[in-house]
Amino acid sequence: MKKAALSLIILFSLLGCSSEENSSTIEETMYFPPIGSSTWETKTIASLGWNPSQVQPLLDFLELKNTKGFIVLHNGKIVMEHYFNGHTANDTWQWNSAGKTLTATTIGIAQQENLININTSVSEYLGTGWTSEPLDKENLITSRHLLTMTSGINDENDLVILSNLTYLADAGTRWSYHNVFQKLMDVVAVSSGQTFENYFNVKLKNKIGMNGFWNNGIIYKIYHSNTRSMARFGLLALNKGKWSNEQIINPTYFNESITTSQNINPAYGYLWWLNGTSNFMLPGGQTSYSGSIVPNAPTEMYAAMGAADQRIYVIPSKKLVIVRMGEASNPANPNFAVSGFDNELWQKINAVIN
């Protein structure tokens, strides 16, 4: 009897250990902040085993580099949220070209609703004569070409007016960063029978609780929001287009968005920048550079990047979304979507999270 009792004690002890081990490895459920509420759950740096001694150097760097808002999400919960240089949590700021990803996402929604097909000529929606190209060349341009920056339209002037939209190369044969992407907004407006902003608000903004607005910039519409709204969109991107229990964007389309979209610039998807490719091109030139766009960042990272260093970094394996809003880190060179700032920032981030 004593042997039997002892065996039972050992068995229960082993079961207890197994149960405890299993509970420690249970994956935390992804958190989504409620719509229409300022409530947002948080977690501590200590709970993640990060290095607290490196937090202040990161914050000092961000402030020095003209940052206004900075947020780090892990599994949807806020780990870091800081505001600098007079900016507050309620203040809005422009996304610049980081907002191109909002347009790409809206295009994906319009396609899944069978309003458009990205492989159809843009002229099918806007009519012929939306460019100043010869008709046979204009008809080659699809929405996919606009999503991938391969329209072939002359890039000498970023102001998108008819006289500037002239032929330079056949669509699909040349990668060139150009603001003609905004014609995608017209495609959505025509195909949906409403303004782009209204369609965007109903199908995307309101569904994830963003607070922003589109404003007419000098050369194209620019999105403005507070930093948390930018983080909300980053969280949607981390979850491949799913928000809580609703698949807002078709996951097949979203995965295409964050995958090399053409063989000219491997670091570009559908208006998303991709890290970890063998080579990349930058706005404003035709040079191909070897390596990743942000060597210090995880190779899997995909990012929304805009002028003056507006950033949403998404790192799926680490369940991280990192947002930076602000003025240009280097005021002497504010115009490029990708800059050396990213690599410096990631050196500081790595010191905290690794």
UniProtKB/TrEMBL annotation:
<feature type="signal peptide">
    <location>
        <begin position="1"/>
        <end position="23"/>
    </location>
</feature>
<keyword id="KW-0732">Signal</keyword>
<feature type="domain" description="Beta-lactamase-related">
    <location>
        <begin position="70"/>
        <end position="325"/>
    </location>
</feature>
<dbReference type="Pfam" id="PF00144">
    <property type="entry name" value="Beta-lactamase"/>
</dbReference>
<protein>
    <submittedName>
        <fullName>CubicO group peptidase, beta-lactamase class C family</fullName>
    </submittedName>
</protein>
<dbReference type="InterPro" id="IPR012338">
    <property type="entry name" value="Beta-lactam/transpept-like"/>
</dbReference>
<dbReference type="InterPro" id="IPR001466">
    <property type="entry name" value="Beta-lactam-related"/>
</dbReference>
<dbReference type="InterPro" id="IPR050789">
    <property type="entry name" value="Diverse_Enzym_Activities"/>
</dbReference>
